[in-house]
Design goal:
Layout (H helix, E strand, L loop, with lengths): L1 H18 L7 H23 L30 H37 L1 H15 L3 H12 L3 H27 L3 H8 L4 H7 L2 H28 L11 H8 L7 H28 L1 H30 L1
């Protein structure tokens, strides 16, 4: 019985595997998806998985990783492992909120600028150029310092410095789409400009914007933790990865205070970058065509190598 069902099971699994886009079958895509999913699960179960209160100062100070504390304790007796798990609930959702807000704002501004044109386009794009003229981190630091050190103000600063890149991309896409036949046909059928902007444009710009947003999640995490590291984001005693590394700077000999939060940031950023690259390959038809062309070119090169000896013999 098992011999008869085994081929069916293998066939079913093969069909499911072939249903996955080619770009998602790569090693980097699978590694990124597994790591990102693992951190998402950790963020969800952190309140129950943390062995200690992340804010409680009840353990021996500066204890190295061991049986008493898996990842050691910090300078005031707090469990590093518990704070690391709790930090995932702070850093990742806020970075996602930053990216979503910047995406929505930048897409809206870019769509209006590209579709309306004229002085509206000039005004919005000059504002975009003004923000993009400043280094991203420096401008975010200035905004966060002006608003006051807090996680909310750090997120606002991240949104302000991030939306121009979405506006630029969406504007260029809208400029090419507004002259397409399907948009012109809708206008001839009586669609108002705002209806065309709502119904015709979004489906055609969603792919590039989604790819840009997925790649920007890692950048948002780095920016948010960087502001917290500088004291402009999370404030003590909040459990946040950037502030944990900042606190470790005064205790260089206690290596575990900075290494483990740094590894958490590294793995999350790496995972979302892998996912963004795979998503770009899956949604970009040019990348797909290049991969297929490369595969096709490899297949055609083999017969040429076989024919060379025959040609030499004929001579």
């Amino acid at each position: 019985m098992s011999a008869s069902t085994s081929p069916r099971t293998r066939l079913r699994r093969g069909r499911l595997f072939r249903a996955i886009p080619t770009a998602w079958r790569t090693t980097l895509a699978m590694v990124g998806a597994i790591i990102a999913l693992a951190w998402i699960v950790i963020a969800l179960i952190a309140p129950w998985a943390a062995p200690h209160d992340p804010l409680a100062q009840q353990l021996p100070r500066l204890t190295a990783p061991g049986d008493a504390s898996v990842l050691g304790t910090d300078q005031v007796g707090r469990d590093v492992f518990s704070r690391l798990l709790t930090g995932a609930r702070v850093t990742m959702p806020l970075a996602l909120l930053m990216v979503v807000s910047a995406t929505v704002l930048g897409t809206l501004i870019g769509s209006i600028a590209g579709f309306v044109g004229g002085w509206v386009d000039e005004t919005l794009m000059r504002l975009t150029d003004l923000i993009m003229a400043f280094p991203t981190v420096i401008l975010a630091m200035i905004i966060a310092a002006s608003l006051g050190p807090s996680l909310l103000n750090a997120v606002i600063a991240g949104i302000v410095v991030s939306w121009p890149q979405y506006a630029r991309v969406v504007r260029s896409l809208v400029l090419s789409l507004r002259t397409q036949n399907f948009v012109i046909a809708g206008r001839l059928l009586g669609y108002s400009p705002w209806r065309s902007l709502r119904s015709d444009i979004p489906p055609n710009v969603a792919g590039p914007v989604l790819v840009l947003a997925s790649l920007d999640i890692g950048t948002a995490i780095l920016l948010l933790t960087g502001l917290s590291f500088l004291g402009l984001g999370a404030q003590p005693p909040a459990a946040e990865w950037g502030s944990m590394i900042s606190g470790a700077m005064s205790h260089i000999d206690a290596w575990w205070l900075g290494v483990f939060p740094g590894l958490a940031i590294l793995t999350v950023v790496m995972a979302f970058n892998f996912i963004g690259d795979s998503l770009r390959d899956a949604l970009d038809p040019l990348s797909s065509a290049e991969r297929e062309g490369a595969a096709g070119g490899t297949e055609h090169e083999e017969p040429a190598a076989v024919e060379n000896p025959t040609t030499e013999e004929g001579r």
